[in-house]
Batch of 2 targets.
Target 1
Amino acid sequence: MARLETTDVARMVEEATQSVAGSVEPDVELGTLDGWDSMGLVIFVELVRERVAVELAVHDLRACATCADVRDLIERQRG
C-alpha cells in the first residue's frame, strides 16, 4: 500500500470537520480548526478506518499537532 501523504490526511480532516474542500493546509495547527472537536475526531477515526484500514484512538489524535503528525501516527499503526 502506498505511503499516505499529508495532503491525503488534510482532505480527510476537511471532511471530518465539514470544512471547505482545499481549505485545510497540511501544516495547519489542527487544534485551531473549527470542528476538530470530539465529534470531528470520531468522524476522522472512522474515515481512516474505512479508507486506510487503520484503527486509531481519539486520544492518540489529540497529541497530533499537524497533518504530518497524524500521517506519521497512521504509518506507525500500519507497521
Target 2
Amino acid sequence: MISIKDFNTLPFDKKCDFITVFADYLAHRTDDGHKYYLYHMNGYFIEVIFIPSHKRVAQIKAFTSMKHMGPYLSQIKIDELCL
C-alpha cells in the first residue's frame, strides 16, 4: 500500500486505479449537482468528486484531517474503521 504523500504524486489515472483496487468505499453524498464518494485507504481518506452532467471524475482529494469528514459523519462510524 502507498502513503498519502505517494498517492498525491500519482497521475490522475493511477489514482483511479489505486482507488478501484485498494480503497474501501465508505459513503457517498450529493451536493450542488455533484456526487461525492468517500473511500479509506492505508490510514487516509480519499474523496472522489464526480460531475454527472459531464460524466467524468472532476477531482480526487486525499486527506487525513477529520475536518473534511463533516459531510459524511452521519453516514459512517469512524470508530469501526481500522485506522
